[in-house]
Write a structure and sequence with these properties.
alpha/beta, Immunoglobulin-like, TIM Barrel, 2 domains, 8-stranded parallel β-barrel, 4-stranded antiparallel sheet, 14 helices
Length: about 500
């Protein structure tokens, strides 16, 4: 696995004139491998997502004799080959030498059971929801829900089990856990629901296959990278995502709708929030790409327009103080991910960004010093958010000629324990809201948090204060609550007016 990034980079750079697979397309029953002019003795090899070289795969064509497309049955018995990669290879002694890049199927939306378009709410207002009734009163149109897969997975059938059949195996999932989620209440009210897919360590029997083999248990957050490295880890993850996508994004809306699947959390801060041990940026990208592609394939089988998102911190062209083996540049991760994804068969991934202020304890993000208007800015916060919007319009980052979509899926503003603390926090939300309204590439501003939380490192990010001696029981709303409620309504202008002198403006840009 340590060499996967280098392998993929070499495959991506294979010269264009070399024989190999140029594209993989699909029908309901076949995979069609489009092949460049073959060299004598070239073979075609099928590779599982966790396999890294041609020698590990299964030969599906022993001797190519023409450049005509090669058609393979989509199903090998009960197994769906849609997740497989394919590569041309020549025999080199006892090994096989890859010729060209490993290619995965593209254009999966033609297989989707549900072709309903992605919703486009009139408002960008969003919240990480704790109290559903209050959130709806506030007029939200977007939300994120933390979704730990370990709470969903059951290893044996239980009285409340829901079943999912995949590749000839049966998987079980907890109806009780799903019933505890507010997906239906929110989506029935017109809210675009996004799930943040996570795995917290703590259930040893599930950790045995869900924990990434390189995960280091030292960080306190207990969040592992998803294990799509081993056959067991891959199949359990794949089954869970297929089940969720079918339930919430397929043809039956009875259980509510999910329109976004965010893979992991803040992957460019991988040591703390998506742990796969010490890892270079190249290793993080190669590992994350595999998992995101698997997620995208599972979601596309159910829905043509539900979205799969990468998750990044506000660090853009700088690593964190933890160093380059525990964090990486967001910009570099995006660029490397994009290049490798295109080399293996492009797909429509999108970005869930977290543009917190440069100092999480200072809400006045307009005072940030590190953000600049340049592409190589160390950080992207609300002060220079237009840099991110512009970056995603670069021709090399477009998908089918259109910019990938951006949601701001987690960010908040601390309320300092000072006389003007509530004023600064509320003004910061007004500043952020106005900035997001001006950027057409950003679909949602999803505020974190609804209520202060005791275990958030001393930060007070909530619309609501928490009750003393509680973890997150709401006590009373802050000034930011009224600003949040007014955002996107006829009351916005009057309600936001207080923020102008706080920020140092006479009118909104």
């Amino acid at each position: 696995m340590l060499l996967r990034a280098c392998l993929l980079a070499l495959l991506a750079c294979a010269h264009a004139s070399a024989a190999g697979i140029s594209k993989v397309t699909v029908t309901a029953t076949e995979l069609v491998l489009h092949v460049d002019a073959p060299a004598s003795g070239l073979r075609l090899v099928e590779i599982a997502p966790y396999e890294t070289n041609a020698s590990a795969g299964k030969v599906v064509v022993r001797q190519m004799i023409s450049a005509a497309p090669v058609r393979l049955p989509r199903f090998d018995g009960a197994r769906d080959r849609l997740y497989s990669g394919f590569v041309a290879a020549r025999v080199a002694g006892e090994a096989r030498e890859a010729v060209g890049a490993i290619r995965f199927a593209e254009g999966l939306d033609i297989l989707s059971r549900n072709c309903e378009p992605h919703p486009a709410p009139a408002s960008k207002k969003g919240l990480q929801v704790q109290m559903v009734d209050d959130a709806l009163t506030l007029g939200i149109r977007h939300c994120t829900l933390n979704f730990p897969l370990g709470s969903l997975i059951q290893l044996e059938p239980q009285p409340d089990s829901l079943k999912w059949e995949m590749d000839g195996r049966t998987y079980y999932f907890s109806r009780r856990y799903l019933d505890s989620q507010p997906v239906k209440r929110l989506s029935d009210a017109g809210v675009v629901v996004n799930l943040i897919l996570l795995h917290y360590l703590g259930r040893a029997e599930v950790d045995a296959f869900m924990r990434h083999p390189r995960c280091d248990p030292a960080p306190p957050n207990r969040l592992t990278a998803f294990n799509t490295v081993t056959p067991d880890g891959l199949r359990h993850y794949q089954a869970a995502i297929e089940f969720l996508a079918d339930r919430y994004s397929g043809t039956n809306a009875t259980n509510g709708r999910v329109w976004g699947y965010i893979v992991g959390n803040e992957v460019n801060a991988h040591w703390e929030w998506y742990n796969l041990g010490p890892a270079t940026r190249a290793e993080v990208v190669a590992d994350y790409l595999r998992t995101v592609r698997v997620t995208h394939t599972a979601v596309r089988k159910a829905s043509a327009h539900a979205r799969v998102y990468l998750s990044l911190t506000h660090y853009w062209d700088r690593v964190m103080r933890s160093g380059p083996l525990r964090s990486c540049e967001g910009r570099g991760l995006i660029d490397d991910f994009n290049r490798l994804a295109q080399a293996g068969g492009d797909f429509d991934w999108h970005l869930a960004h977290h543009p917190y202020p440069e100092n999480l304890f200072e809400p006045r993000t307009w005072l940030d010093q590190q953000p600049t208007p340049r592409e190589d800015t160390p950080k992207i916060t609300f002060k220079n958010l237009e840099v991110l919007d512009a970056y995603f319009r670069r021709p090399d980052l477009l998908y089918q000629g259109r910019p990938r979509r951006i949601i701001l899926s987690e960010q908040g503003f601390h309320c300092p324990d000072k006389p003007d603390g509530e004023l600064w926090q509320a003004a910061a939300y007004c500043f952020a809201w106005k900035k997001v309204q001006s950027l057409t590439g950003i679909d949602a501003l999803i505020l974190h948090r609804h209520v202060d939380h005791r275990h958030e490192g001393g930060l007070n990010l909530g619309l609501w204060m928490r009750k003393p001696d509680s973890i997150a029981t709401p006590d009373k709303p802050r000034k930011i609550y009224e600003a949040f409620k007014a955002a996107g309504t006829p009351e916005e202008t009057a309600t936001f007016r207080f923020a102008l002198p706080v920020i140092g403006l006479t009118e909104w840009p």
